[in-house]
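In the current project phase, we have settled on a layout for protein records. A sample record is reproduced below.
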Amino acid sequence: MPAIQSKELCLYYGDTCIFNNLDITIPKGKITVFIGSNGCGKSTLLRSLARLLRPKSGQVVLDGSDIASLSTKEVARRMAILPQGPAAPEGLTVLQLVKQGRYPYQNWLQQWSREDEAAVRQALELTHMEPLAERTVDSLSGGQRQRAWIAMTLAQGTPTILLDEPTTYLDLAHQIEVLDLLYDLNVKEQRTIVMVLHDINLACRYAHNLVAIKDRKVYAEGPANTIISEKLIQDVFDLPCRIIEDPLFATPMVVPFGKGIQPVLNIKPEAVTIG
């Protein structure tokens, strides 16, 4: 059974159609990454899969259930989402923020438990936010703030995690740290990870399944070695490039160039074979 499916999904912003009759399948226990140019609908699609945006028609199926039929808390126990640019109330500490991830498990019969405490501590440890637990979120740097929000998402303890550009505001070292963390969650705990990423090379490295979006449609989907090509990068991003093999991971590596600085070497596309 797939983790998430959309069936004939139609999404609108006002009178503007974003997606029409979209069918997409997110494999369970895998890392799926959405790629595409700015404004192509990646974030909109992610939000609709998390029930943050109501479709005009069609449905989203989560673990075999129509997501529209589930209660808010039930959805929150099955799926966590980290949107772009989340904002915390002024004065809220990192620890208080991360504790919010346990909200779906609270009710008038069951208050804070040892399990909740353990989940929060583990999330802080995994994101290396323990030393900053008592700092207020608004006093943190952009990268620290992003890691605090990721900790809250992890504390939710869901089998499926959706993240919209989780490496925003992070330097390269922390980008790799966050993506390694998500990769470990996938490998060790079989969590389904769905992300929007702008860095195509990192997307190729970490994703089991890539979904390339163009003109509000799925242009291609599948493993990076199968779908990434110079034609795809040209068509989806309007960018000339060469595709070479990543010397460390044997995944496609996109080497872009524009109309300014020209390549020193004229490597023919057919000279490189990947996979």
